[in-house]
Specification:
Layout: H1 10-29, H2 37-44, H3 48-55, H4 58-70, H5 82-98, H6 100-111, H7 117-140, H8 147-164, H9 171-178
C-alpha cells in the first residue's frame, strides 16, 4: 500500500504514472531480479527517496504495478447465459494468469501479502467480475452465482496450481472445477 494518500490528479498522480511506466518498461527489458529503485527513479525522472517515501520498498512498488497490470480492461464477456459467461471468464482468467507475465504479476502481488492492500485490490477485481456475471444472471431470471463459492472452488485452485506449478490449468481442468463451484454446471 502506498505510504501516503495519493490524490486524484495533480503532481502525485503524475509521479505515480511515471514510476509505474518506468517499472513496466524495465520489467519488459530485463529480469525482475536485476531491477533496482534507483534504476526506476532515474527512468521516471524522480529521486529514489520519492519512491521509498511513497511505496516503502521495491517489493511494495512491484506489487502496486502488478495490481494495476492485473486490472481487467473490459467487463466479462456476455455470452447470453450464466454458465457461458462463467466458463468464458474462468477460461480467460486461467489463460491470462498462467502466462509467464501473469505468473510474474501474481508472484509480485503475493510477495507483498503482508501489506494486504495489493492482494485485496487484486481479489476485488475478480470478485467484481463474478458479481457482474451474477447480476446478469439475476437480470435474465437465472439463479445468481455463489460468488464466494466460485472464488473458493474455482479461482483459488487455479491460482494455487499456477503459483506452485504442480499441474497445468488446462481448459478441461478448469471446466471440472466449474462443476459444483457455486454456479451453473
Amino acid at each position: 500500500m502506498s505510504r501516503e494518500m495519493v490524490r486524484q490528479g495533480g503532481r502525485s498522480a503524475r509521479i505515480q504514472k511515471a514510476v509505474h511506466e518506468a517499472s513496466r518498461q524495465l520489467l519488459d527489458e530485463m529480469d525482475r531480479t536485476r531491477i533496482t529503485v534507483p534504476m526506476i527513479a532515474e527512468r521516471a525522472g524522480v529521486t529514489p527517496s520519492t519512491i521509498y517515501r511513497r511505496w516503502g520498498t521495491l517489493t511494495e512498488l512491484m506489487a502496486d504495478v502488478a495490481v494495476e497490470r492485473l486490472r481487467p480492461a473490459a467487463a466479462p464477456e456476455d455470452t447470453g447465459s450464466t454458465a457461458g459467461d462463467l466458463e468464458s471468464f474462468v477460461l480467460q482468467y486461467a489463460e491470462e494468469m498462467s502466462s509467464p507475465v501473469g505468473r510474474a504479476l501474481l508472484r509480485d502481488v503475493i510477495a507483498e501479502a503482508q501489506d494486504d492492500d495489493a492482494t485485496i485490490r487484486c481479489c476485488q477485481y475478480t470478485h467484481d467480475h463474478l458479481a457482474e456475471i451474477s447480476a446478469r444472471a439475476t437480470a435474465r431470471g437465472e439463479p445468481p452465482l455463489d460468488v464466494a463459492g466460485v472464488l473458493d472452488r474455482t479461482i483459488a485452485p487455479i491460482c494455487y496450481h499456477i503459483l506452485f506449478g504442480d499441474r497445468e490449468v488446462t481448459p478441461d481442468y478448469c471446466r471440472t472445477l466449474l462443476t459444483g463451484a457455486g454456479g451453473p454446471g
